[in-house]
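Hi,

Apologies if this is the wrong queue. I'm a grad student, and the batch job for Ig-like domain-containing protein from Eleutherodactylus coqui produced an output file that my downstream script rejects. I'm not sure whether the problem is my script or the file. Here is the sequence I used:
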Amino acid sequence: MADAVCLAADVIQKPPLHLALPTDSVTISCKHDDSSYYNKYWYRQKKGKELVLIGYTISDTLTMEAGFTDGKLNIQPNGTRTGLIISNASTNDSAVYYCASSIHSEVIL
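Support response: The file is valid. Your script probably expects a header line. Output copied below for reference.
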């Protein structure tokens, strides 16, 4: 059996709570303290529903998942920082949003 190593970097997401009026534009920012963690991921979890991947960046190349390509949600990569922008907010956007970061190196044995 191969040995496993788990690495971690602190991820700070602000604001922790955001209240918005309908039609507002909302920005949630996320940063971490380790520049080797260049992959960023944004997830959404609506009440009582599963966690869903919105999109991710590898370095600064953005990929939005199916169902999130209409421009309503946008991810802005910037080195150790990333932002999630929700345009024209509505009650349908009420959810918990998570950001994550990884080094992501693949090893095949």
